[in-house]
Amino acid sequence: MDIDAFHLILLIVSGVAAGFVNTVAGGGSIFTLPALILLGMPADVANGTNRVGVLMQSAAAVRGFNRHEMLDHSAILPILLPTIIGSLIGSSVASVIPAEVLKPVLLGTMMTMTLLIVLRPSTIPNTNEPVMSMQQRPSAAAWLFLAGLYGGFVQAGVGFILLTALAGVLRYDLLRANALKMMCTLVFSAVALAVFIYQDQVLWIPGLIVGVGSIIGVQLSVKFAISAKQSTLKWILLSMAMLVCLAALFK
C-alpha cells in the first residue's frame, strides 16, 4: 500500500494522540482506526492493523509505569485470565465478519463509546479506597471478560471498561489502575493481533507507523497520567472522533 506525505502525517499524528489518550484514560483507537480506514483499508484490515500500534504503545506504557513502581505485579495473573478469554472470542468474531458489515459497526461503536465517556464521567471513578481482591469482588471478573471481549472485537474505548473493573470495582487509584489497564491491553492486544495475522488482516507498514507515533504519545503522557484534566480531554476526543468518523463514512 502506497502512503503519501499527507497520510504519513495523519498516521503519525493519530498514533501520538492515541498513545497519549490511551495512557491517560482510554479511547485512543477512535483516532487511529478511522485514520487507517481513510487510507483506503477495508474495515477488517484496519481493525487488525490497528493492533500493531496498540501493542507497541501498551508495551511502552507498561515499561514506563513499571519504572515508576506503579504496577501491582501480584494482581496481574488473576486480572489477565478473564481478559484473555474474552479477547480470544472477540477477535475471532471480528476476524470473520465481512468488511461491509464491520465498517459501520466499528464506527458506530466508537461514537457510542465516545458519547458514554463524555456524558457519564463516573465511567472513570477516582478513589483512594483500599484495594479489593478478585476473591472479594468476583464481579470484576465479568467486567474484565467484557473488556477482553470488546477489546478483541474493536479496541476503541476498551480502556474505560478496564478502568471500570480496576478502579470502580477493585478500587485501585487511577494511577495504578491505568498501569494494570495497560498491562491488560498489552496482553489481549497480542492475542488479538495473532488472530488477525492468522487471518491475513494486518498491513505492517501503516501499523508500525502508527506504533511509532503512539510510543511518542506514551512518552508524553505517562508522567502526567494523574494530573491530566479529564473533562477537557473528553470533549476534544468527542469533537475529533465525530469529524474523523464522518469523513471515513463518506470515503
UniProtKB/TrEMBL annotation:
This is Probable membrane transporter protein. One of its GO terms (cellular component) is plasma membrane. It is a multi-pass membrane protein. Keywords: Cell membrane, Membrane, Transmembrane, Transmembrane helix, Transport. Belongs to the 4-toluene sulfonate uptake permease (TSUP) (TC 2.A.102) family. It comes from Ketobacter alkanivorans. The keyword Transport applies. It is found in: Cell membrane.
